[in-house]
């Protein structure tokens, strides 16, 4: 079974099924859950979280409609491999958002684009060594 961690907040105002759907979706987008990884059964997840099976089923249905998971009768639910391009696009969009924040911050210093690029290359090189 996949090692999925879901934290529920009963005071956030966000429905429980939405919290589950969002956290599983984020785990898939970050690559923590990979195509083919099994998810806990609806019953097991409901038991682990101390919530209704209906709530868990609704979260899984939402994830299935998004094409992020596939459910097979008698086998369970698995992370879908069909939406790799969509997942890649969403991850690229997240990177673009972070680059925009970085550019905004660097303009406030001010830091020239060339200096910023040199910092990125240097940090990347250090990370790879």
What would you note in describing this structure?
This protein has helices at 16-29, 42-49, 53-65, 84-107, 113-128, and strands at residues 69-72, 76-79. It starts with 15 loop residues before the first helix and ends with a helix. It is mainly alpha-helical. Helix content is 58%, strand content 6%. The chain has a two-stranded antiparallel ribbon with strand order 1-2. It is elongated and about 55 Å long. The mean pLDDT is 91.
Write the layout of secondary structure elements.
Elements: H1 16-29, H2 42-49, H3 53-65, E1 69-72, E2 76-79, H4 84-107, H5 113-128
Antiparallel strand pairs: 1-2
Helix pairs in contact: 1-3, 2-3
Key words describing this protein structure:
129 residues, two-stranded antiparallel sheet, 5 helices
């Amino acid at each position: 079974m996949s090692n999925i961690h879901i934290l529920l907040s009963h005071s956030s105002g966000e429905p429980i099924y939405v919290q589950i759907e969002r956290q599983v979706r984020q785990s898939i987008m970050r690559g923590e859950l990979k195509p083919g990884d099994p998810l806990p059964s609806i019953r097991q997840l409901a038991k682990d979280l101390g919530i209704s099976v209906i709530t868990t089923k609704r979260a899984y249905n939402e994830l299935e409609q998004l094409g992020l998971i596939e459910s097979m009768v008698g086998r369970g639910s698995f992370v879908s491999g069909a939406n790799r391009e969509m997942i890649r696009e969403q991850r690229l969009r997240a990177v673009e958002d972070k680059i925009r924040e970085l550019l905004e911050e660097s303009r406030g210093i001010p830091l020239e684009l060339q200096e910023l690029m040199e910092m990125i290359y240097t940090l990347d090189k250090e990370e790879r060594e």
